[in-house]
User: Which sequence fits this backbone?
């Protein structure tokens, strides 16, 4: 195997070795297989190709300071996938099977688990894919559940850096009572085009508003929103945002620090009063935001309004402290008082 430069890993579809999978058919899961073929064969009529019947999860395994390996909060991802699968009418592995297959994926790809000390981890991607060939718009109890993985860097190296975000006036992410709170592939399809324009203009993130009235903050394209005001950690209460496990963890960490946690609707104008703003998600833990522009038309030059939180590249003290606590627990440098680390022998 080619030597991996653990310090220069990004967040990429890195081809590892073992894929762990099981097939649900005729009312049961097949015995779990570990393969190295790295490809699936699907009927061209499979639900996934036409109707986007698929969902996924994202979680990480870490090599800790004392040499142990741990997966971070896998039971939360198992529960979230079960909720998404129910929404799509798909069969879903239970918590034990989900966690067992994640463990097998780490073990089967042990050489890709970054050693301690590089701020890197093994990102696990559990996938649930509808493979039944059909035309009709009805659920069918057949699916492949697979766990794949890729080594991932910290994105920022050892130091967080803030970046810009944009609120696109002409794009929405999720409809009220729609699919926004589920981790389905189709939700992401709608963000590819606005992400392209945002990135071309130097914005790292898209911030979406609630689509019915566009008065409230929903979430970023790939992470939840949080704002810091005095001693408060504030995050949107909305039916159309993904229930982020990182956000849940940050709320618990903030409470441990003696902060007040508010989960409530956040009006757009309230952005003016935040001292710090960030996105949060498994891939990067925290994306500190330096400023947010509102653009009535993303592709056009006009900026209707700007909210500034800190100079580009700099990071507020609370975001730094929250980030250090979570990553410290993940890498086994700080005591895991909540029992978030799921240890495995590898
Ligand atoms: C739309 C969206 N919101 C929020 C999150 C954060 O969720 P989690 O913290 O569980 O990774 C993600 C994924 O990382 C996401 O894709």
Assistant:
């Amino acid at each position: 195997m080619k030597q991996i430069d653990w310090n220069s890993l990004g967040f990429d579809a890195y081809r590892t070795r073992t894929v762990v999978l099981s097939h649900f058919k005729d009312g049961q899961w097949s015995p779990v297989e570990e393969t190295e073929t790295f490809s699936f064969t699907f009927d061209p009529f499979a639900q996934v190709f036409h109707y986007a019947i698929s969902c996924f999860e994202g979680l990480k395994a870490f090599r800790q300071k004392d040499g142990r390996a741990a997966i971070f909060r896998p039971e939360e991802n198992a529960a979230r996938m079960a909720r998404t699968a129910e929404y799509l009418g798909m069969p879903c592995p239970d918590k034990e099977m989900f966690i067992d297959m994640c463990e097998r994926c780490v073990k089967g790809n042990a050489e890709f688990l970054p050693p301690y000390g590089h701020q890197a981890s093994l990102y696990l991607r559990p996938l649930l894919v509808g493979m039944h060939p059909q035309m009709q718009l009805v659920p069918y109890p057949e699916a492949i559940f697979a766990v794949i993985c890729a080594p991932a860097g910290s994105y920022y190296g050892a130091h967080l850096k803030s970046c810009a975000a944009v609120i696109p006036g002409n794009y929405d992410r999720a409809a009220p009572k729609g699919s926004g709170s589920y981790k389905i592939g189709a939700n992401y399809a709608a963000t590819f085009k606005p992400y392209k324009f945002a990135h071309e203009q130097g914005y790292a993130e898209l911030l979406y508003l609630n689509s019915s009235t566009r008065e409230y903050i929903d979430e970023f394209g790939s992470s939840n929103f949080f704002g810091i005001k005095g001693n408060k950690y504030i995050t949107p209460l909305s039916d159309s945002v993904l229930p982020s496990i990182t956000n849940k963890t940050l709320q618990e960490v903030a409470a441990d620090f003696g902060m007040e946690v508010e989960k409530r609707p956040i009006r757009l104008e309230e952005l003016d009063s935040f001292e710090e703003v960030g996105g949060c998600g498994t891939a990067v833990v925290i994306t500190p935001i330096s400023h947010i522009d509102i653009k009535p038309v993303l592709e056009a030059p006009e900026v209707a309004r700007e909210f500034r939180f800190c100079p580009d590249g700099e990071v507020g003290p609370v975001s730094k402290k929250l980030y250090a606590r979570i990553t410290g627990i993940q890498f086994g440098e700080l005591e895991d008082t909540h029992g978030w680390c799921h240890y495995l022998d590898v």
